[in-house]
Amino acid sequence: MFARRLAEDAARIQAHFDHVLAGADPLPVTQAMAYATEGGKRLRGFLVLESARLHEVAPDRSIWPATAIEALHAYSLVHDDLPCMDDDDLRRGRATVHRRWDEGTAVLAGDALQALAFELAAHPDCGPASVRADLALSLARASGAQGMVLGQALDMAAEQAPEPLTLAQITRLQAGKTGALIGWAACAGARLAGAEIAPLARYASALGLAFQIADDILDEEGDMEKAGKRLRKDAEAGKATFVSLLGLEGARARANELVAKAEAALDPYGLRADALREAARFVISRDS
Amino acid sequence: MFARRLAEDAARIQAHFDHVLAGADPLPVTQAMAYATEGGKRLRGFLVLESARLHEVAPDRSIWPATAIEALHAYSLVHDDLPCMDDDDLRRGRATVHRRWDEGTAVLAGDALQALAFELAAHPDCGPASVRADLALSLARASGAQGMVLGQALDMAAEQAPEPLTLAQITRLQAGKTGALIGWAACAGARLAGAEIAPLARYASALGLAFQIADDILDEEGDMEKAGKRLRKDAEAGKATFVSLLGLEGARARANELVAKAEAALDPYGLRADALREAARFVISRDS
What we know:
The structure is a homodimer. Chain A is mostly helical. Helices cover about 70% and strands about 0% of the residues of chain A. The longest helix of chain A has 27 residues, at about 165-195.
């Protein structure tokens, strides 16, 4: 049931990407943009669509920020995979963009996907100007040097640090690196409706951390075939993770606590938020 | 007189960068962001401030999009200079970001500067939500795969092409690569005022092309010391330029025609647009 809803939302986002990318010049950069947006769980887009449903926002409005956050996420993966960053050959089970094309194309395609994210978040079909300005501004804050890029920069600095990071430092790093976009996605529905974002922000804060702990567990004991990407990177690099700091059992217990916290944050919405509750449980049970 | 006004506007933009970047975590990425925004003529920011003056928009509103377009321009330079793109060591008379730090820092700093550009363009102090949404959407379109990145992608494709580009192809390439941001900058004042953008769009279209022709002339016969960057790149790479296609005299004549056209586009504004007229003449007389 939940898996079907996730798959349906993913298909709707893919169809919207096909729509907005149609008619682009047939250049390596535009082909790489389309390639980079294919596949993946679309969890961030799902959070936008479901938080919008919760606020009774029409799907033909919420599809724009849902596609925006997936474009932004895709750009971050393309740049993260570059040789000067994580140097990965495999992503979502296929060659990374710089392996399929070249590094210059990967830099440009990522850059264009970031611009596309803002084009979609500020699109007239999102709703009134106040909503569009709010979506664009909050997306910029979530993705920039106080959000996602801060997390990546802290991650980069950690590689040079003499000591592994502490739990507090890893938590801050991940709040930026994965938490900021997940937070934006979960709050987007409230922003579209002009409603209070606080309950969804609390939900997303716990969810984002649970997501990252689950990622660390997957990195430790996951199946590379299912994950569609290289695993065991952090352990090989001697980097601290939630698993190295808490142990496997401790990390699982912490992830379960966070999911309970995320579910409780949805209490104000009652049963209508069940899809978001299931998303929280899904996040720690997935195998990719 | 014009030089002083340009320098004053540049100083105001620098002060605003100092303001918005203050308080950032002292990481290589945030230091690289500040470094990349230093120096330069600030022509794009000047166009925002002057087109805003023309529409009697308060400078404490127009400083936001002026700084936004300079952040976006700075990101494009940082990524353009990367080894996998133009591979340049020198920019604005100093080491490029990836030479001063490393490639990963340059990729991330560029990414964060792009996000910063949208944060500034959608900032509440720009004015009403309708203006902020319009600024963010038009900036995304100008910078993405139908604007600046399209120009860069066409430039990249040209390097692989069996034949040098024609005049029509170079004109289209440059309309994206440099024209799109110059166009956004010149129209920003009208957008801030909710006024008609057509006359400024015509002005910017001629100005952007004149700017690029002047760049090709500088690349051919400029002084590398004054330019603060590597010159003669296109000739060495055997790439077509306005100079290779029109000859030096032909290129100068075309640039002069375009400046006359840009000035004429400002007729509806009368004498109030004199600073923008001077900017057009400056663009083809500069030595850097």
